[in-house]
Design a protein that fits this description.
GO terms for molecular function: RNA nuclease activity. This is NYN domain-containing protein. It holds the Pfam family NYN. It comes from Selenomonas ruminantium. This protein has nine helices and six strands. With 267 residues, it is α/β, with parallel strands linked by helices. It has two domains: 133 residues, Rossmann fold (3-Layer(aba) Sandwich), CATH 3.40.50.1010; 83 residues, no CATH class. It has a six-stranded parallel sheet with strand order 3-2-1-4-5-6, sandwiched between helices.
Length: 267
């Protein structure tokens, strides 16, 4: 059995002493889904005459509000009155019920409604409702409604993976760029350290230079000074770069030579 939309009667048993007006209003919204069935709302409305909202509530179309009578006053008198009303409705053939309460004493009402022909019962209560009470119903709604976690769809997961991959790729590119920016300084440092090697490194650089066509006059130069005759085209390129960098020719050549030696050492 399910509580689907039909022409059958749906009864709402409202524990007015233990459930606020908002919980009743929430349940009426749930019950509206099963209309055009007739909905009977049962409680002791006169027990809360200060609730002016009852008048507006009872004017809602599609709902019948029934006043119950207590056979005695005192503790559990409302429970007993609702129990009697539930029996009456059950005898009338009603098999679909909402029970609004967090009171575990209402378990006996649910048991009675399933005693002969099973009923379909939906409970509405707070999260403090006991497991015994919840298990007595076919369904149970917690009030106020608990927020359900949004399920991540496959599309969302793929998008998140792509975003993570893009961020990782961006980080790698930034690291490579930073590494390239640091290399020239490292090369200069290595070239300075290479000055102590007076034999192997100058020889390698000398091999890279073309033999001079004309013999230059011997000039006494400071120790560690290297003289190289450059081709005209190379010298012109160096002069252009010298002008662009704003340094002397000696400084430019020294820097380029040391950078070349540093790469040679690394290889």
């Amino acid at each position: 059995m399910t509580l689907d939309s039909s022409n059958e009667v749906v009864a709402i048993l409202y524990d007015i002493e233990n459930a606020p007006f908002e919980m009743l209003n929430y349940t009426l919204g749930k019950a509206r889904r099963y209309q055009p069935c007739r909905t009977i709302v049962v409680s002791d409305w006169e027990a809360r005459p200060e609730q002016k909202r009852w008048e507006k509530l009872m004017r809602r179309p599609g709902f019948t509000f029934r006043q119950i009578s207590r056979t005695y006053q005192g503790k559990n008198s409302l429970d007993s009155a609702i129990y009697d009303s539930a029996k009456l409705l059950y005898d009338e053939g009603v098999r679909r019920f909402f029970i609004i309460t967090t009171d575990s004493d209402f378990v006996r009402i649910a048991e009675y409604l399933n005693s002969d022909t099973p009923s379909y019962i939906i409970g509405v209560g707070t999260k403090q409702a006991s497991e015994t009470l919840r298990n007595a119903y076919d369904e149970f709604f917690v009030y106020p409604p608990e927020e359900k976690e949004k399920k991540t769809t496959r599309k969302t997961k793929v998008a998140a993976a792509k975003e993570s991959e893009a961020k990782q790729e961006k980080t790698v590119k930034a690291a490579v760029k930073e590494s390239k920016a640091v290399k020239p300084a490292k090369a200069v440092k290595t070239a300075k350290a290479a000055k102590t090697d007076k034999e192997a490194k100058p020889v390698k650089s000398a091999k890279a230079a073309r033999p001079a066509k004309k013999q230059s006059p011997v000039v006494n130069l400071p120790e560690g000074t290297l003289t190289v005759n450059l081709p005209r085209t190379l010298r012109q390129s160096l002069q252009e770069r010298q002008t662009a960098e704003g340094v002397s020719m000696d400084e430019l050549v020294t820097y380029l030579l040391m950078r070349g030696m540093a790469r040679w050492v690394e290889d």
